[in-house]
Design goal:
The chain is mostly helical and 157 residues long. Helix content is 55%, strand content 0%. It is globular, with a radius of gyration of 27 Å. It binds heme C. It comes from Microvirga ossetica.
């Protein structure tokens, strides 16, 4: 009888052990699972040839539509820090965030649209990259809007 109980106890222990192993296996499978998220239209995956092509200079033709698009996207993504005229006086600056340089600085006036696209894509210093939020075509649109703000000299319209 004692032997039988001991045997049951052992097999219960063994059962518990194998249960733990199973849970671990499941947990480690879950860790590599990724939720399926459908790609929004116009998305270009990182590192793809299409993305490289979309970021290659000279970029899309500068049309009134592209500039209008750039102005709208600039207002959404850049104005909070850089201000509506790019003078580095966005609303978050008044709340204590580091103030960005004015686009009217001599150094930044010399930036080509391609360089501005590069800053949006990769970030710079304390500025985060925006590659995951702004499509390549929109980066060009924003860059040309920045060049227009510089050409206008930061004057209020
Ligand atoms: C959260 C605030 C914030 C947002 C939003 C932001 N920037 Fe910046 N940006 C900064 C700061 C801060 C710097 C200064 C970075 C540094 O030199 O450390 C900067 C610097 C820059 C520069 C100058 C880089 C250089 O070489 O000195 C450019 C150009 C620029 N931003 C463009 C943009 C554009 C275009 C957008 C919108 C897509 C944008 N930024 C959005 C904070 C921001």
């Amino acid at each position: 009888m004692r032997l039988a109980l001991g045997f049951i106890g052992l097999s219960l222990l063994a059962a518990c052990d194998s249960g733990t192993e199973q849970r671990d296996a499941v947990a480690s499978t879950r860790a590599v699972q990724r939720a399926y998220v459908p790609l929004p239209p116009g998305t270009i995956s990182r590192g793809s040839a299409a993305r490289q092509a979309a970021l290659a200079p000279p970029g899309p033709a500068v049309t009134p539509e592209l500039l209008a698009r750039g102005e709208g996207r600039f207002r959404v993504f850049c104005t909070p820090c850089h201000g509506p005229r790019g003078r580095g006086d966005g609303t978050v600056v008044s709340r204590g965030l580091p103030s960005p340089p004015s686009y009217l600085d001599e150094r930044l006036r010399l930036y080509s649209p391609e360089q501005i696209v590069g800053v949006i894509t990769r970030g710079r210093g304390r500025m985060f990259p925006y590659a995951d939020r702004v499509l390549p075509e929109d980066r060009w649109a924003i860059a040309h809007h920045v060049k227009r703000l510089q050409a206008e000299g930061g004057a209020d319209p």
